Amino acid sequence: MDGSVILPVEVEGFVQSLETFSLKDVGSVRWLRLHECIEKLNMQAIMDASAMHDEFVKEMLVSYGKIPVLVHEMILVEVWKQKVFPILCQLQEFDPKVTFQLYMVLHHEATIINLLETIMFHKDSCEAAGDSVFDLVDYCHRKLTLLVSKAITDVTHKLANQVSSMEMLKEQSAAMEFEISLKAVSVLRYITDHADSISVINRMLCTHNLPCVLVQLIDCCPWSRCKEGQVQKYMNGKWETILVEDHVKMTKLDGQVWLSLYNLLLKEDCQRKYDFNSFNKNQLLKLRGFLTDVLLDQLPNLVELQRFLAHLAITDPAPPKKELILETIPEMWNHIVRENSGKWKAIAKYQVKETFNPSESDLRQQAQSLAQTYKIDVMERFLPEKRKCGSCGREAMKRCSRCQEEWYCHRECQVKHWPKHKTACQLITETREKIQKDL
Prior knowledge:
The protein is 62% helix and 4% strand. With 439 residues, it is mainly alpha-helical. β2 (230-235) and β3 form a beta hairpin. α4 packs antiparallel against α6 (100-119), α8 (132-149) runs parallel beside α11 (210-220) and α9 crosses α12. The longest helix is centred in the middle third of the chain and has 30 residues, at 165-194. The chain starts with 7 loop residues before the first helix and ends with a helix.
């Protein structure tokens, strides 16, 4: 099929091959083959959704019941990053010359949350997730809590020759964590769209009190910042300078948070389960200050939310009736942690010796395999249609010839922006040359 990463018949084979792994096997050759399969499925799913084609990837994942496998593998890497990766970084005997194998492990979580963001838009995907949707709700809550606490922020990169390869990897991991957490915002919104189960609603409202978490997220807005007197917003995987006339324009992330709140507060089942006590009520009423006419023009549905909050301000809703609920308990995180408790250092040492110590021939083979997955002509299809100038924010047509990453509308903007871009340009160029030399 023209313009495809993989053919429909290949999609079926890849989906059928998906399986769960143990923590010890993360990063192994067999595990890397799984990563390549999921990466290709992710790219194809995005292309199909963007072009409004038949979504074969979603349909196959639903048909073969593989969405719980994706959720498990995402949480597995999340546990690995929290429990094993810090030990690897501290081991004195571990000083790898090439870190792309480790980078693939870190990137694996981002790949899966990307794929889930694409497929969970559909109700049948949410239904096919089965009990794993509880694990997914807990996962999203963990990521949103990180965003609210500002435990993850934008990372300022240093020059490649100023830090070790492991230090650079830790920086990349922190940058990825920010992007992953933003994707979790979208996944949560789709769950609130489709969740009919009282147990799922109970977990979102009563166990995690997600409405209050979302209020805090709107208040701190971690995807927006002011830098050097200019407003920047995180869009399309990078911080972009916003023109003055666009400051009040809603981003996709803003919309996802507001729609999640709309679902959690206005659905009948949700209103019946949520405890509008004095603390929760005061938190929710903070939203009234954000519901401006400009915002309502962009998302008219929020007029209903505005009316609800106006009514809430002058009433004291009765506490929810106590009902007997047979709640499903998420198992994936607890099972992985319980199974490997007390073995974290042993797993790290095993992986140093057996997994992240490949021979030159193994490295070459892995690099060739990954090069087939990340073909330049395929990757360019995922670039946004309109690139913005790194200096003024307007539409750009020219690219930095050295790093090939930054875009400009005119030569004058490139010259003006060079003092700011110089460090990043040097870092990107040196890193690329270093990787090519290692391979």
